[in-house]
Amino acid sequence: MTTPAGHNPQPNAAPPAAAPRKTRRLGDYELLGKLGHGAMGSVYLARNVTDNRQVALKILPQELARDEEFLERFRREARAASRLTHPNIVAAYDVGVADNYHYIAMEYVDGPNLELYMQKRGRLNENQLLKVALDMSYALEAAGAAGIVHRDIKPANILMSSQHVAKLTDLGLASASHGDRRVTMAGFCVGTPYYIAPEQARGDRGVDGRADIYSLGATLYHLATGTLPFSGENPVVIMTKHLNETPAAPHVRQPAIPLYVSALIQKMMAKNPADRPQNAGELRADIERCIRGEMPLPKAAAAKAAPAPVAPAAPARAAPSLALLDTVLASLDRLLPFVPKLFRLPVAAVGATIGLLVVLWLLVALLRH
């Protein structure tokens, strides 16, 4: 089987589609060579005869095009990819039909997918792994901003360019916030179970970007250790393990993995979505800590606590002695307006003293009688 450069075979691959027409031309695209085939058809290196740009041309076999659900999944990939323009996501340039073949013209990535890369070179080292994780955090952030959940992140869907830039591809299972659930469930049936999030395996409604974070964590687990998180004799067994079991810590499987990288992967693969990074921004913060050789934050510490509401400060209460003085002065302002302010208090003091003496003299006089 021909190994494609950048667009590689998937598990459950369909038989290769024959090259359309002997002229090896499809619409505006001249077919230069076959890159490979996967579940959704064959991929060719092609040249757009109009602008001379090389593309990866994905062609849906005609027998699959007769299946409305496969055709809708193919269209879904084109729609989702066309909404995303980002250096870490494979771009979609064109979608159309020619000679009864449905096709998507995509960005050509001049490097292998990570499944093939690992088959040839073995597991990724720490620097390679964290670089892939960082690139994918940017891809997931862009997808999240567009309201898209990928739902099928795995090594075969991450391409590595010759410039060592990781790019996310194959949005055929992607779901939008208001997507067609029937097509989503059909896509789920043809997806791989090895990296699936527990809530996705259960068929929960409202699966969000945290499922992609789990799948990316399972992908990193495989890339770091060289082994799958879970294996089993059939997809049901594997998905049941994702639901109920915890895989061995990555550093236990592969002692060369630093503890902080192991902790990052375990956090991403938490069974409860609330215990994972809640979005691509939180994930990237953890990845950047690992790049600095630091442990990712525990979930409780990572959650940004809302600042406690600050009660408005109560008006300062004047000291009793000062309040009494203010009262006295205000009274003097009313009683002695004709006396300058500077002398009002001494005059009042003298007057009060005289008044007190008069009261005492009267009391003494009354007592004598």
Describe this structure in words.
This protein is elongated. Mean pLDDT is 79; it is low at 1-6, 8-19, 177-191 and 305-326. It has helices at residues 62-65, 68-82, 114-121, 126-145, 181-190, 198-201, 209-225, 235-244, 250-253, 259-268, 280-291, 299-302, 320-335, 341-368; strands at residues 25-26, 29-38, 41-48, 54-60, 92-98, 101-107, 148-149, 158-160, 166-168, 175-176. It is an alpha+beta fold and 369 residues long. A hairpin with a 2-residue loop joins β5 and β6. α7 runs antiparallel to α10 (259-268).
| Number of separate strands | 10
Secondary-structure arrangement, i.e. CATH architecture of the largest domain:
Orthogonal Bundle
The assigned structural class equals alpha+beta
Total of helices? 14
> What is the fourth-level CATH superfamily of the largest domain?
Transferase(Phosphotransferase) domain 1
Overall average residue pLDDT: 79
The CATH class assignment of the largest domain is Mainly Alpha
Relevant terms:
alpha+beta; 44% helix; Transferase(Phosphotransferase), domain 1; 2 domains; 6-stranded antiparallel beta sheet; 369 residues; two-stranded antiparallel ribbon; single chain; Phosphorylase Kinase, domain 1
